[in-house]
Write a structure and sequence with these properties.
Layout (H helix, E strand, L loop, with lengths): L16 H32 L35 E4 L5 E8 L2 E3 L2 E5 L3 E8 L4 E5 L5 E4 L5 E6 L4 E6 L12 E7 L3
Parallel strand pairs: 2-5, 4-10
Antiparallel strand pairs: 1-2, 2-3, 5-8, 6-7, 6-9, 9-10
This protein binds dinuclear copper ion.
């Protein structure tokens, strides 16, 4: 038997005390740096005033929408009366989507690729979801409120759109398509 072979009865070799301490110190250092960065980013956003708005101001410039709120029974008095793609006088594009048990309006949404689109989503009745497969679009559609986001589709194609909040007996049928047309 050579010297390097170990017997079962040999004591387990112990790690060097000092090398363990070094590893612990490195971990502690990483944690300290992360805590500092997190604190500084929170502090910086507080100072600069870029923390998330709590005043529900989304869509405040839309007719019939006040402080991001609207009456779900009076959608006819808002741009949601004509769901779909709208072009503003300055050329920017808005998209209005209404969720309603158990369908999306417009039934099939056509939008252009390569252009910034500002979506406004609201519900005509109960809570629904608006989730576009293969993208990070996933908003909750709340009656009386306007959800808004801006996105640009880089690729033309057909995107399945589903309701991902249980909204009633037809929830599973609440599926539609968004067709992103190639840029002209
Ligand atoms: Cu609408 Cu689920």
């Amino acid at each position: 038997m050579t010297k390097s072979q170990r017997h079962l009865t040999d004591p387990v070799p112990r790690l060097e005390h000092h090398s363990l301490e070094q590893i612990e110190n490195i971990w502690f250092g990483i944690a300290a740096v992360m805590s500092f960065l997190l604190f500084m980013s929170a502090f910086a956003s507080f100072i600069s005033g870029t923390y998330p708005g709590l005043n529900g101001a989304s869509g405040h410039h839309l007719a019939g929408v006040v402080n991001g709120r609207l009456d779900p029974k009076l959608l006819a008095a808002t741009p949601f009366a004509k769901p779909g793609l709208h072009q503003n006088p300055d050329g920017s594009l808005d998209v209005f989507v209404v969720t309603r048990a158990f369908q999306f309006e417009p039934a099939v949404l056509h939008v252009p690729a390569g252009k910034p689109l500002t979506f406004y989503v609201t519900s005509a009745d109960v809570l629904h979801g608006y989730s576009v497969d293969g993208t990070n679009i996933n908003v909750t559609s709340v009656p009386g409120q306007v959800a808004s986001f801006t996105t640009t589709f880089r690729h033309a194609g057909t995107y399945n759109t589903v309701c991902n909040e249980y909204c009633g007996i037809g929830h599973h049928n609440m599926v539609t398509r968004m067709i992103v047309d190639p840029p002209q």
